[in-house]
Amino acid sequence: TNDETFLYLYGVTSAATANYKDAEEALTAITNDKIRAEYSYVSWLVRTHIMTRHAKKAWDLYLKMDTNAESFLVLQLIANDCYKIGAFYYAVKAFDVLERLDTAPEYVEGLRGACAGVLQQCAAGKEPSESLGDAIRILEASARTHMEGGRQQFAQQNERIVTVMRGYAKNMKKK
Predict the structure, then answer these.
(1) How many DSSP H helices and E strands does the chain contain?
(2) Element spanning 74, H or E
């Protein structure tokens, strides 16, 4: 376990100094279940996956977690880090779950911004059109939830964004 402890400390130090490639390699080489179960390990691994453009791996790690306070923190990390680096599709997925758990304005707005990012990336050919469809469905579901919860202003804002996204999707099908 001395090698495992070294890998863990090296991985965390590398990540903390923005050397994410080395951090990801060190952290993924750890096989010790006790270390792998620690929140600090999971959160640093999630961050290194995102910062090395492996957002899906970070999302998959979250999906394997039990639902608890730590998984909520990992979800926030995924949402914010993915948004920050432009991995908007996974930011949408994370903000969607966060918003369903807590309708705080920062989650509502994060979801909208990430959906706009997915639209922009689809327009630039950097994201598959299926991602746009997913983002539209998620934002529509959010609008319904806000309408049912008496938050018409949030619902209307989401619906306006959905209208723009649908218009783009329709134009893309014509081309």
Answers:
(1) 10, 0
(2) helix 69-85
Report d(CA 37, CA 69) in Å as an integer.
14
Q: Residue ranges of the chain with pLDDT lower than 50?
A: none
Distance between CA atoms of residues 84 and 86, nearest Å: 6
Please state whether 23 falls in left (phi above 0), alpha (psi between -120 and 50) or beta.
Answer: alpha
- The pLDDT assigned to 67 comes to 87
> Helix (H, G, I), strand (E, B), or coil: what is residue 151?
coil
User: What are the angstrom distances between the C-alpha of 83 and each of 3, 42, 89?
Assistant: 34, 19, 9
Check residue 133 and give its pLDDT: 93
CA distances from 13 to 1, 8, 21, 170 (A): 18, 9, 12, 47
pTM, entire model: 0.92
Burial class (CB in 10 A: 0-12, 13-18, 19+), 52: middle
Query: What does the block give as tokens for 133?
Result: 């469809």
Q: Looking at residue 155, what is its pLDDT?
A: 87
